[in-house]
Write a structure and sequence with these properties.
Elements: H1 3-29, H2 44-61, H3 68-86, E1 179-180, H4 195-209, E2 216-221, H5 228-248, E3 256-260, H6 273-279, E4 281-286
Parallel strand pairs: 2-3
Antiparallel strand pairs: 1-4, 2-4
């Protein structure tokens, strides 16, 4: 039998065998999680060796009498490279299902996808959530507890005074004293809330709604212009107007007490325009 015929037959046989190994390796890479599960014959080194034999055989078979060794060497080198590539491990490492949680301890409750349960949806899984009943939408810290920016013991979502200085004692509203409702103003000489006042009260109402165990006093105050009796009535009407609006926003009337003090409790001088403007105010305080 001629050299070319013998080489081609050997090469063809080996090509068939190598193709089968490579195909098997490719199929298994999609179903197996680690390269250690593959058969020995699917290892890139083995396939490279087989490819070398194939390439050398084909190179030898197709060479002339004068360059047999050179053609065989070139074929063997090319075959080894191709065989190694065909059997290379193409296993795709699976992405972790719950990458944001890190390593989940054994025994932690998980959902149908294997991710730790987060019952209150705050981004902190139950197994390390120290405040598992946080209301929806409330910002939390790494322990899953509502953020308390000023560290006064009243979380921000309930705190009417979220910037209290460190170390200052506060009441259940998160305030060290009665809170002046800045921006809560009225139309001239009436108890009609301005649109800006209504916007301010929406924030107050939201925090009161999250602080259900607290009763509040809403107090109205005026400057000293006009009669004391008139000022008393006006301040009472204004306090009631605020309470009525908060009630419309969902705050139970049982939790609010409206009181008008008129000009009885000034906090500034009534002899100046600035002082009188300061005295015209509505305050929010924890009810006794």
């Amino acid at each position: 039998m001629k050299k070319s015929t013998t080489g081609l037959l050997i090469g063809s046989a080996l090509v068939v065998g190598l193709s089968g190994c490579a195909n098997s390796a490719s199929q298994q890479s999609g179903t197996q999680s680690a390269s250690s599960d593959r058969g020995w014959y699917q290892h890139p080194f083995v396939c490279g060796l087989a490819g070398s034999v194939i390439g050398g055989s084909i190179g030898y078979a197709t060479s002339g009498n004068s360059n047999e060794e050179e053609s065989g060497l070139v074929g063997a080198t090319a075959g080894a490279a191709i065989g190694g590539l065909l059997c290379a491990d193409r296993t795709v490492e699976a992405e972790p299902q719950c990458p944001s949680y890190g390593e989940v301890p054994a025994g932690a409750a998980v959902d149908s996808e294997g991710c730790p349960l987060d019952s209150d949806g705050d981004g902190v899984p139950d197994y390390r959530d120290q405040c598992p009943g946080t209301p929806a939408g409330v910002s939390v810290n790494a322990e899953g507890c509502p953020v308390d920016s000023d560290n006064d013991g009243v979380p921000d979502y309930r705190d009417q005074c979220p910037d209290t200085p460190a170390g200052v004692e506060v009441n259940s509203l998160g305030c060290p004293e009665a809170l002046v409702l800045e921006g809560v103003n009225f139309e001239f000489d009436s108890a009609q809330l301005t649109p800006e006042a209504q916007q301010e009260l929406q924030v107050v109402a939201e925090r009161l709604a999250n602080n259900t165990n607290v009763r509040v006093e809403i107090s109205g105050h005026t400057d000293s212009r006009g009669s004391a009796e008139y000022n008393k009535r006006l301040s009472q009407s204004r306090a009631e107007s605020v309470a009525d609006y908060l009630n419309q926003l969902g705050i139970s009337s049982d939790r609010m007490m409206a009181t008008g003090y008129g000009e009885e409790r000034p906090v500034a001088s009534n002899d100046t325009a600035e002082g009188r403007a300061t005295n015209r105010r509505v305050e929010l305080d924890e009810a006794n």
